[in-house]
Structure formats: C-alpha cells, structure tokens
Amino acid sequence: MCQFSWLARQHGLPRPVSIQNIYNLASRQFDLDLAEATYRENISLLAYSPLAGGVLTGKYLNGAKPANARMVKFAEFQPRNRRPTVAHATADYVALAKQHGIGPDQMALAFVRQRWFVKSTIIGATTMEQLKRNIDSTQLTLDKKTLDGIKTIHARYSTPAP
After folding, report:
1. 3-45 tens-digit pLDDT
2. Do the Cβ atoms of 133 and 105 come closer than 8 Å?
3. Burial label, 53 (beta-carbon count in 10 A; 0-12, 13-18, 19+)
4. How confident is the model over 48-85, as pLDDT tens digits?
5. Distance between CA 107 and CA 152 in Å, rounded?
6. What CATH number was assigned to the domain covering residues 2-156?
7. Beta bridge partners of 21
8. pTM above threshold 0.90
9. Do the Cβ atoms of 159 and 83 come closer than 8 Å?
10. In what order do the strands lie in the sheet with 44-48?
11. Where are the domains of the chain?
12. 49: Cα within 13 Å, side-chain hemisphere
C-alpha cells in the first residue's frame, strides 16, 4: 500500500483513498501495521465482515445451527471464524453486550465503525430484520465502559481469527 501510494505520487497518478480488508472484533490484524500505514498515507479502511460472517451475533454459540444461516448453508464459508477461540471470544463479547443492554451485533458493528481508520463497512445481511438492525447500529456509540470491556476481552483473545 505504501509502495503503491509512493509510485502514484512519483508518476502523478491518482492515489488510493481506501483499502478493503477484513476487520471485526475477532480479526483485528489491521491494528498491527496497516492502521499506521493508512494514517501515514491518508487512506481509510473499508471494513468487510464486521460481524465475522455472522459469528459475532452469537447465533452460532453452543453449536447452534440456525436454518438458512451462511455458516450452515456453506460448510467452507470463512473457516477462520470456525475456530474454537473465536467461539470463546464471541461468548465473552455477547455477554459484554448483554451486560450493557445492547445487541451483540450492534456492539460489534459500532466498535468497527468507531475505529478512527474506518470510513465505512460492508455488511452482509440476509434478512430484512438483520438489515434494519445493522442500519440501527449506526445510532449507537459505545461508551468508555463498553470499550474497556472490549479491550479486556481482546487482551485474552487478541486475534482468534487471523
């Protein structure tokens, strides 16, 4: 990304304004190096899979297999989100959301949206209700106590779905 930006400057070409990468509570590798690069190059993140393929909603906890859910319909869909550590982290995130009286889906989306480098997210709702909840999450701003809880869980499960 940095090299591409440098070459664009050298040759008077349009520079990238956005990078599209996975980013969610379970996949935060972007924090490790690309966040700094996007800051230095003034490039924002277009985050995809902010709900980790639906996992962060909590609907797959305890081995649940909801009818018509992507991870049920498509056995090979996002294998990184099928790891046991993702399930453990998700259970903690769901508990945290409930403790603060918010839906785990809305907490996960609000978290991604509140990151300084995120310009927008790509959501993948499969029902109208999911779409409405995703849109409604834009009205939620996570408070310090919730963000501190997220930090605590992240310290236990820093990157369960690389």
Report:
1. 999 999 999 999 999 999 999 999 999 999 899 999 999 999 9
2. yes
3. buried
4. 999 999 999 999 999 888 888 887 778 788 888 889 99
5. 15
6. 3.20.20.100
7. 47
8. yes
9. no
10. 18-22, 44-48, 118-122
11. 2-156
12. 19
